[in-house]
Amino acid sequence: MGLRFGLLGTGYWAAETHGAALDAHPDATLAGVWGRDPAKAAALADRYGTRAYDDVDALLADVDAVAIALPPDVQADLALRAARAGKHLLLDKPVALSAAAAGELAAEVTARGLASVVFFTNRFSDTVEDFVRSAAAEGGWHGVRATLFASIFQPGNPYGASPWRRERGGLWDVGPHVLSVVLPVLGPVTRVTAMSGPRHTTHLLTQHEGGAVGSFAVTLDAAPEAKAFEIVLHGERGWVPVPGGDRTAVEAFGVAIDRLSAQVGGATDEPCDVRFGRDVVAVLEAAERSVSLGRAVDVATG
Question: Can you give 220-250 as a three-state secondary structure string?
């Protein structure tokens, strides 16, 4: 029998990705749903033929693991609560909105020997994962240029009403996608310089341990005709684009379930665990501070 999961969250991503993947997975059981809105939790639980819980601790007592699809600050608190209850964690990105919160969570997971996976969507597609491993092994990279311009504040977009996305913008929402691909190839970031641009764009330069430099531009509020998703490495081979994902979000989340289960079974080579999630948050936090201070900021190490 596979892992019994509790789903924390009732929004679009929780329902259409987490819930759908857990319901379809042959070796996982969606054992219950909790949400901040009990009516939405009941509706989602009914959709997937499971139980709605009014109390988080009651759900935790009945499951082996939790999948969380909630705003990052809410996720961080509930994930820490779940870890202290001995539950394995399948989290969304970013894992928290501060390096301190992410570090506390990572320390708890490590101390308790728990399995953890952070769902950086494309890292669960073979095309991207194979490329990242190959590029990291090859070396010889001088840097990266990345542009992630989303346009979510258009009528009908399911993410456009998200308060945390409106407040934190593309740096925190799509920035983790870029960093999840770049950090394994270029190495840890030691210093960040960032500034704001039109349409809530964040532009940042990252200095990596080995000397490589990354150049990023991200926003959730691009003009509809300016949407872009491009990550290109450069080095001794010239300019090499990172491929796109080859799985839908639901398919990729199914792989994330597999990888969490593998850790529970003894695997120790998960590249997207909560410790990696903490490293990503540290870069994002440094970039946010750099925008505020108007100068370069060192990245806190875990």
Answer: CECCHHHCEEEEEEEECCEEEECCCCCCCHH
